[in-house]
Amino acid sequence: MIMIMKFLLTILLLFTTVLFGKVINIDDKTKIYDVLPSAQIYIDKTRKLTIDDITTKDIQFEDNAKSLLGYGYSPDFDVWVKFTLKNDTNKPIQKVLEYGNSMTTDVVLYDLKNNVKIQDGLLNMSSSRNSINPIFNIKLDSNETKIYYVKVSSYITTMIIKLKLLERNDFYTQELKHQVILALFFGAMLILAIYNLFIYFFTKDISYLFYVFYILSISVHHTLYVGIANLYILDNIAMNYVVQFAAVFIALPIFFLALFSKSFLQIKKYFILNKILNILLIIFPFSLIVFTLSDGFNHYRNTFTMIVLLYLIVITIYLSYKRNRQAHFILFGWLILLFGSLAMYLSGTGIINLYQSFPYIVEVSLLSEAILFSIALSDKINTLQTKLIVQKRTENERLEIQVLEKTKDLNISLEEKTLLLQELNHRVKNNMQMIISLIRLQTNDIDDKKIQNLFLTTQNRLNAMSQLHELLYQKDDISYINAYEYFTTLIEGLQETYSQNININYTISTDLETEQAISCGIILNELVTNSFKYAFHENSDDATIDISLIKENGQYILIVKDNGVGYDQKTVPKSFGLILVATLVESKLQGTITADTKNGANIKIVWSEEDE
């Protein structure tokens, strides 16, 4: 019986609507229908009415003539929209009903004739939806008339209601265009952020880093505002968490903007203004915690953020009055941002629908402000560069006079230091020779062959460094050493020590920097000593050691090669001498060492000129 009553009531409502209500006649030629001007509106301030209450009780819907309804922040009531569609053709028609606000919390479409309820909105987005705004598929059979109800609730952002009926292909063409424009906007903001981030790395000016955070935070906020985040990044569960902390996403851009303004405008020069701003910045995070966690403060959750924003505007106006050049740029940027915010407010409250004439006014405002702030940062660099050029010119003139005065004194001092350094090398060489002589005398009193060899090795190492200091003492320019002269002198000393008939071949075509010569002398001493001691059999007639030092493509290549018996690197343990060679190559020369010991020893050491 109840089902029959509901059916009869539905027929009665349909009949009444056709006779007295506004009916939207649908055909297959018209591309877009603006639904709201032909719809009726009811505001449910109790927020308790269901679709059964709407259809069974005496609910007085009011006619509407506006194409967009804006109620501002409206968490205390629901809005019901009632409209009638009639198919004027003799064939079925399918349309897409678009609800033109992605941030509305809940949007529910009721099709009573087919007993269909479809829920969408910010927190109930279908996983199959591929559009930014909520959409519903509308199907009318030939000559069919249907009544639809839409229930709208929004307790997060402003309630803006806009309903359009479109052809499916036209809708997706329009949607693609809309998403491409938004992608271009976010791409431009990202480029600005990356550009200023690179400038920060080069200049280390903290203003640029704060500005990058401002651009990124306002971009994140706008992805939420226009629905990009909800569509491509966050699911319904994540979106619920975002809603809980919505005040944070609104406040973060203002917080970073305050830090940017404080640094960029050098507010610390103004004691009172700076002190007040510091207090506000300290209170800022605590206010966010209070407003976010306390349900009783929902209506005031953005109040402190607005206070900080207004104070920043006051500071900027004051500094502009004080003829702060950078403040003029910031003030103009504020005007652009306020214009965009005013457009959002007027459209959100339904006073003036600026979106109809300028659908991307907010994106243009944000991007213009970001570009203007980037120009302000660039102007700051140009101003600093101009000041630095003037200071540099003045400083250069002063320094030229000082240089002329100091050059004469430095030349005299350099000559004295050169003589002292040569004397120092001479004394070091003499001291080393004395130590070598003492070691030689001590060696004569030792019968243990192993200990004698240790003393002999130490003597040769000291002799390698002594020979270098001998050459330094004889030269006027001690930056570089004649490698051929140094190597031949060093090897001749080793030949006298071991008294072996071994042929030494030299291929040396470059000099060495002094520090490298020290390392190369010790390395050469160790490698050639090993060849003398272990490489050849007694009475070997063709014993040969090849020593090569060349420079190719900015790299030094030292090769010490003998035609001895060689050895197995896996079975022969490394001696202290070979460990010393490896250490000098890696730590002092910053090079690499390779060894081929199968048919004699072939040691190759390579290091770069840049590592000198």
CATH architecture of the largest domain: Up-down Bundle
**Cα-atom radius of gyration:** 43 Å
Tell me the CATH topology of the largest domain: Rhopdopsin 7-helix transmembrane proteins
Beta-strand segment tally: 20
Number of helices: 16
Number of domains: 3
Quick one: overall form? elongated
* Uncertain ranges: 5-20
Structural class: alpha+beta
Helix % is: 55-70%
Q: What's the CATH first level of the largest domain?
A: Mainly Alpha
Largest sheet: 7 strands, mixed
Strand-residue fraction? 15-25%
**Cα end-to-end separation:** 100 Å
Question: What this model shows, in words?
Answer:
By secondary structure, the protein is an alpha+beta fold. It folds into three domains: 2-166, Sandwich (Immunoglobulin-like); 179-391, Rhopdopsin 7-helix transmembrane proteins; 481-611, Histidine kinase-like ATPase, C-terminal domain (Heat Shock Protein 90), CATH 3.30.565. Helices cover 57% and strands 18% of the residues. It has 16 helices and 20 strands. The protein has helices at residues 2-20, 51-56, 168-203, 206-226, 228-233, 236-244, 246-264, 271-293, 303-321, 325-348, 354-357, 361-444, 449-474, 483-498, 514-535, 576-588; strands spanning 23-26, 32-34, 40-44, 62-63, 69-73, 78-87, 93-99, 106-111, 116-120, 135-140, 145-153, 158-161, 163-166, 480-481, 503-508, 512-513, 544-552, 555-562, 592-596, 602-608. The strands form five sheets. Strands 1, 3, 4, 6, 8, 9 and 11 form a seven-stranded mixed sheet that branches. A five-stranded mixed sheet has the order 15-17-18-20-19. A four-stranded antiparallel sheet has the order 2-13-7-10. A hairpin with a 2-residue loop joins strand 17 and strand 18 (555-562). Helix 10 crosses helix 12 and helix 13 runs antiparallel to helix 14 (483-498). The longest helix has 84 residues, at 361-444. It is elongated, with a radius of gyration of 43 Å. It starts with a helix and ends with a strand. The model is unreliable at 5-20 (pLDDT under 50).
